Amino acid sequence: MTRRPTVVSCGLCCASGTGAGAAYRASFGPSGALFRELGGCGLFPLPRRASVRVGAACGFRSSRLPRCAQILFAALDEALADSPLEGIARDRIGVYAGTSVGGILESENALREILEGSENSDGAFKFYECSSVAELVAKKIGARGECSTFSTACSSSSLALESACLAISEGRADAAVVCGADTLSRITVDGFGSLMLLSKSDCRPFDAARDGINLGEAGGVMVLIAREFLGGRRAIAEFLSFGSTCDAYHATAPHPQGKGLEAAISLCLKSGSIEPSEVSYYCAHGTGTGANDSAELAALRAVFGEGAPPYSSLKSAFGHTLGASGILNAIVAAAALCDGVLPPSAGYSSGASPEPIVSPQKTAGKIALSASLGFGGNNSCAAIAKGESGPKSPAGASARRIFVYGAGGASANPDLSKPLSARSRAQLDSDSLLPDIPVLKKRKWAKLQRMFLSASRGALAAARGARLGERACVSCATGLGMASETQKFLESVLLKDSPLPTAFTNSVHNAPSSAVAEMFGCRGYNCATTAKEVSFEAALMEARARIRGGSCDSGIVAGGDECDFFAENYARRNPLPAGAGAFADSCAAYFIGAEGACESAPAAEILALKIRRASKRAEDEEKRAIETLAEAGLSPSDVSAWFCPCRLGGAKGRTLEFLSGRFGGFEYLEDFAGRNYSASAFGILASLGRGAGIFAQYSLSSTSMAALTVWRVL
């Protein structure tokens, strides 16, 4: 990383209360010391799981916000107490959040009330959108830079950290507020219970007698700034490098030999020019399940041989905090390096090779690794250095150009050259997708997964000889994720008291990205981004950064959403503007890469991509668009056509009308592909049959995030 991201403050709220220091000290306690029975937490009635022991968060102020935000804001207040962002321009501060389920608890309660006959519970469903986590933080602190949420199950906040560091390294941000938060909920407790993964007592990571996980809650925050802005601020730690991969093996189970994690650790070490012997601590994912811990140990042995560093898991202290576990690990690992004492793996007795730390261990080391694993075979590893002591020079930036080699789509409109027929909703028949795959084989995939797989197959069919494998990433965007499967699971629990294991495993936002990786053997970086109407641009940004940075050579980038209960709820709460298109199932996918990523000639080249908070003045938006074009050596007169995903109402609608008038008219993608959070994914696809030329797309979200994408059709 060319501009090294420096940690200047942290905040944490979890089972030990509010305070990063308190959490670090609590990590030295006995296994399960902070756990309580779920039935005594007063969160929700779930009699079958009442005796399950959990690490419920405490020490935060109650408010009308969702519990996830309440916990996160307690951590945020701690992280911002000493004004670490003072003097940094607001439009140069990004917010990057990681969460597995976001405000699902409040959505569960609202759904229960609706099923019981209430008509006044719709509002809580807005918190189902994982993007609300980042948006709430950005609003609270006034950040106006990039704002996106990563939802890759238990590795979510680790990918948020990586994205923030890359944004600083590339110069897209000068500072970043990185968040991770998840709470207990019916879907997580009953979901993991349906998979028989909950411990009957207190978890014992890596122990021979381990029998499962204890779920926990946490909100964690790290404030990062570029080193040149450090000034008089104290540097707690620096991020040296990351390694992120995908097993492409199974929807929930890790590769039994830990091959994906092995690759992630190796990539992290290589990217940071770190020798294995320089690592003084490995903060493990260590859930206490048989499959996870065995895979993690196999990866450690493969990378380090007989010289594995001291390691431990924090899950026996705080429980498995799901999407927050990555940032919790990073905060405690940084504290351990600063304090010089490593926390033990509480509850461990015997059975692991190599064995974890079983008592506090002093260290003079300067580098720690923090690992996270998630559903879908998602693996992430971060290298953290004490203070400013990072011993290695950062790798140079890559100037690789990014090309589009193939495009594909799955839409309720069979002919995208013609407008979608006028109706309120347009749904795909999921059974018609992937027609060559036997029904019994494809029934494991829900509708949205089939849409992503079908669109991705179309993109790869157009990209002859696409180079995939360990250097290929998958970056998928979705505003609402696997909403139908979430609804199916919750209704079965609420109405029948019968959790559905398959609906649970398919409920995570990264279910499509992991399915794509598994089908096509993409074992590089894998993520699911969500950022309302600019979700696709956020996903494209992530893939572009990995390819430009050299950790990947190619990738599948896709955006899709389905017309479901949650989309209909949005329509009820938000009056649609005049001329709005039909809510529709749709997905578009692209195979992109550096030069030579496949045998086919490229169809297009990505020239510019900017994401930031929009100005309230339409004239300012015009000026910024012209500046972005100028950076690519272009002017508005060079653009053959302008696209815009969806019409908006009110002031935002007036901004779109002004820009449309200034730039010669917008073509609205909702007219052809339908209206949903991922409509912006269709812009490049819509341009490919029009001959060579420059095309631009201006996307404006309902929360005032603006994205401008510019590409050349070749």
Explain what you see:
With 714 residues, the chain is of the alpha/beta class. It folds into two domains: 5-386, Peroxisomal Thiolase, Chain A, domain 1 (3-Layer(aba) Sandwich), CATH 3.40.47; 402-713, Peroxisomal Thiolase, Chain A, domain 1 (3-Layer(aba) Sandwich), CATH 3.40.47. 31% of the residues lie in helices and 22% in strands. It has 21 helices and 27 strands. The strands form four sheets. The protein has a 21-stranded mixed β-sheet that branches. Strands 3-4 form a two-stranded antiparallel ribbon. A two-stranded antiparallel ribbon has the order 12-13. Helix 5 crosses helix 10 and helix 18 crosses helix 19. The chain starts with a strand and ends with a strand. The model is unreliable at 393-397 (pLDDT under 50).
Percent of residues in helices comes to 25-40%
Structural class by helix and strand composition? alpha/beta
User: Under CATH, the topology of the largest domain is which?
Assistant: Peroxisomal Thiolase, Chain A, domain 1
Give the number of helices.
Answer: 21
| Proper CATH architecture of the largest domain | 3-Layer(aba) Sandwich
Mean pLDDT: 93
How would the blueprint of this fold be written?
Layout: E1 5-14, E2 17-18, H1 20-26, E3 36-37, E4 53-54, H2 67-79, E5 93-98, H3 104-115, H4 131-141, E6 147-150, H5 156-170, E7 175-182, H6 186-194, E8 218-226, E9 237-246, H7 259-271, E10 281-284, H8 290-304, E11 311-313, H9 315-318, H10 325-339, E12 341-342, E13 361-362, E14 367-374, E15 378-386, E16 402-411, E17 425-426, H11 439-442, H12 447-461, E18 472-477, H13 483-496, H14 501-505, H15 511-520, E19 526-530, H16 535-549, E20 554-561, H17 565-573, E21 583-584, E22 586-593, E23 604-613, H18 618-631, E24 639-644, H19 650-662, E25 666-668, H20 670-673, H21 683-687, E26 693-700, E27 705-713
Parallel strand pairs: 5-6, 5-7, 10-11, 10-14, 17-21, 18-19, 18-20, 24-25, 24-26
Antiparallel strand pairs: 1-2, 1-8, 1-9, 3-4, 6-19, 7-8, 9-15, 12-13, 14-15, 16-22, 16-23, 20-22, 23-27, 26-27
Helix pairs in contact: 1-10, 3-13, 5-10, 6-13, 7-8, 12-15, 18-19
